[in-house]
Amino acid sequence: MTVTGEASVSKVRAVPIYTPLEEVGAFQCSNPVVEWVDAALPATFRNNLHGVPTDTPIYEKNGWTADAHLATAALLHRFDLRASFGKWMDDHVGAQTATGAIPQIIPTPGWSTESGPAWSSSAVLIPWYLYREYGEIATLERYAPMARRYADDLLSHLRDDLWTGRTWGDWLAPGYMVPPEGMTPIGTLMTITALQHTAQILEELEEDASSYRDAAARIGRRYHSQYFDPHSEHYAVEGVGYRQSLNILPLAFGAVPPEWIASVRKIVTDDIELRTAGHLVCGALGARHLVDVLTDAGRDDLALTILTNPTRPGWGQWFSDGERTLLETWDADARSRNHYFLGSVDSWIQQRVGGLRLTQPGWRSFVVAPLKDDRVTSARISHQTPLGRAAVIWERGPGGWQLDVTVPDGASALVNLEGDSLALKPGQHASGSNARRNDEPHHPRGGWILTSTSTWTTVRFVPISADLDAPRTQVRLSSPAGCQRA
Which of 42, 91, 23, 44 is nearest to 63 (CA)? Predict the structure, then answer.
């Protein structure tokens, strides 16, 4: 704004402008850093949604495709993206070249029109995420031809089953743009997941997907033979040394041979605990999958350490700095302070801190499994699914767990807590009261206490053979009549 002459400015009003979206999810928890990340992602995304999702509202304002596909799983919890991303997927169809290539910016400005698997795989990843969220088979029917042509284009660019073309790699790892491992290993790994998702789409449509499944497996074996060192038991590029993403992504995509999974997981966790002092040292692609890989390894604690670490690189530093939106890079000199792709970790927050994870398309079934860590003692999450509202409220203290679960009509839920499971039908379910009303039915051996009406069900966790009036110190499950154990 420029003022000349004698004019003066007494009031300035800023009006945010973005494509309107229906909010369908909410989250709160007792840890302020975790809660901040969940709030910063939708705030940053709104600033970047103007007809199409962009990378930054200030500089390029381009529809870079990886920004969206990395964050889609997390964004679907917060927003209804059927119309917005459905339109953008149609833009993908329109931008696909005669050879099947998907440009890395859509709508395309006329450059970066060749497929790059780290970016262009939005063409297969986002349709799959949309189908999983909404359960609409028409989504896969609409975009399967694009996915098949894109997969064929990727295969045509491989040399000896390795990606040799340009791709952005694990973009913006701390201290780098394209990190030192280069483009080939990350491009190869992203080709694997693109082919796997193409196969999933076709299989869901009951079409033959064997050629893509076989190709993904073959490329995975080639990656292993090219980069795995059996002596150090991890993946590396010769002369570069250990890089987190070269080991995170093959674990995430199932490319590690079974006999080496435990070893690679141990190297990943040891590196974080011993070398990086609880920090990630990866870019946008690695950050998307790191915490899930740690959970698969039984290390929710280490995932939470990375997420809340108060020093750079990491989200905790941004929280401490008072940022309100997500930055483009981990480095202190980040250009953009409105870049949402590093918020992809929010899907882990929703599933492991909130404890709500879908297991069938359209939320026909979901799992309730909040983590147990003293740094997070309570959380609540709700989500408007295609079947209705699903919600989890949990709290954990010296007396054990308090858990409330809402299961919409047409859905089922499986509660997993500390190694025990319980299947829930539609309704509202609550557990963990510290006292029992005199008129409450109970099971003589302890375990699950179940009371029901026509509209709600109460399930209570209590210790086996416990005094119902004593403090709750553990969770043990039993299955009396009327209560289904899984």
Answer: 91
- In the sheet that holds 356-358, the strands lie side by side as 356-358, 365-368, 412-417, 420-424
pLDDT digit string, tens, across residues 242-298: 999 999 999 999 999 999 999 999 999 999 999 999 999 999 999 999 999 999 999
Q: Is 54 exposed, middle or buried (0-12, 13-18, 19+ CB in 10 A)?
A: buried
CA distance 52 to 63: 6
Q: 459 pLDDT exceeds 60?
A: no
**Per-residue pLDDT band at 432 (split at 50, 70, 90):** low
b/e string for 398-426 if b means 16 or more Cβ within 10 A? eebbbbbbbbbeebbbbbebeebebebeb
Q: Could you give the CA distance from residue 34 to residue 307 in angstroms, rounded to a whole number?
A: 7
5-16 per-position pLDDT tens digit: 788 888 999 898
3-state SS string for the chain: CCCCCCCCCCCCCCCCCCCCCCECEEEEECCHHHHHHHHHHHHHHHHCEECEECCCCCCCCCCEHHHHHHHHHHHHHHECCHHHHHHHHHHHHHHCCCCCCCCCECCCCCCCCCCCHHHHCHHHHHHHHHHHHHCCHHHHHHHHHHHHHHHHHHHHCEECCEECCCCCCCCCCCCCCCCCCCCHHHHHHHHHHHHHHHHHHHHHCCCCCHHHHHHHHHHHHHHHHHHEECCCCEEEECCCEECHHHHHHHHHCCCCCHHHHHHHHHHHHHHHHHHCCCCCCCCHHHHHHHHHHHHHCCCHHHHHHHHHCCCCCCHHHHHHCCCCCCCCCCCCCCCCCCCCHHHCCHHHHHHHHCCEEECCHHHCEEEECCCCECCECEEEEEEEECCEEEEEEEEEECCEEEEEEEECCCCEEEEEECCEEEEECCEEEEECCCCCCCCCCCCCCCCCEEEECCCCEEEECCCCCCCCCCCCCCCCCCCCCCCCEC
- Structural tokens at position 104: 């890395």
**pLDDT for residue 437 is more than 70:** no
Tell me the pLDDT tens digit for each residue of 320-341. 999 999 999 999 999 999 999 9
